[in-house]
Amino acid sequence: MRIIDLKHMSTDDKVDFFHTHWGGTKMVISSGIYECPELAGYAALENEKIIGLITYVKKERECEIISLDSLIENKGIGTSLIKAVEGEAKRMGCRSLNVITTNDNIRALAFYQKREFRIREIFHDAVQRAREMKPEIPAIGDHGIPIVDELLLKKEI
Known about the structure:
alpha+beta
């Protein structure tokens, strides 16, 4: 596995990735509306194919992960991508790494907490507000859980 900076990937490859894995390029969360192909980040490649991708933004003394995808589970791809962002965040003088996920995403909640992220805030009904801008967000998520709230997780770095 090789980790590369997204600035070395073509815009078309990034757009294709987000359309395939997110149904579009726009991410709507409590912290803002983002065009993922335009964000900083890293990709994990194997045989020149994308097997993982992470995007983030810097906000003052914090970095926020906007998207994280690992196409092959339990191979260290997500962890390697987070470490790449964490290293860059430290170089930029950030004090924490944040991520927002939805209440149904039990796998993500477990993944982040195992990597020293702590739940810091719940944004009640945030997903309903996001659906006003991105109606394709499903009503029911993982494990049949209604998707209604967002949770902010933070790791001090």
